[in-house]
Amino acid sequence: MTDRFTDELWRGSADIYGAILAHPFFAGLTDGSLEQDAFVFYVVQDAIYLRGYAQALAAVASHAPDTAGTEMFARHAAEIVTVERTLHDSLLADLGIDPASADEAEPSPTTLAYVSYLLATTRGGSYAEGAGAVLPCYWIYWEVGKELLRRGSPNPRYQQWIGTYGGEEYGDTVREVIAVTDQLGPGLKAAERALVHQHFRTTSRYEWMFWDMGYRQEGWPV
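RESULT FIELD:
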């Protein structure tokens, strides 16, 4: 029996996932020591990122060769705008931040770079390339969420965030995308397969960079 295509993708970036779990952002989430300002900064930047991510998912939907792929990615794009925005607004309000003012925040260098890469890949590349580029955000958040759910957090706001991404409802969404990506594997020629691997690894790196950006409250150097 051959491995799933997504198993192959995950193995190619397993070192990055290990680095993500070891990042002090997550140690701070689970022991409650993460500075609230860093968490607020991360949540605001994540809200900005998700608007671009929704556009990337819509672009993948537009390239899908079948109605099932179009429906799934388009539905996920819409869900991000509603469900996850509700989470961010709730967290920001609890943290004393006006969600409307967060909409006016400037994207950090990492946020802008990550979103730009996703949009360039999903709009200019093939359907398989787009799927490979957007998958790490789904999958890594789920894996991180499950691990952090196991650890728990004494901070109720951090625990709320952990519970969203480690829960079964989110897991069902991720499994949907993994299944679609697996179906693409057997039909890919070597060159396109290599591109999918490249995009998956690149956006996995951006995932590490995004949490590091939040931890450092990254700003523009000039």
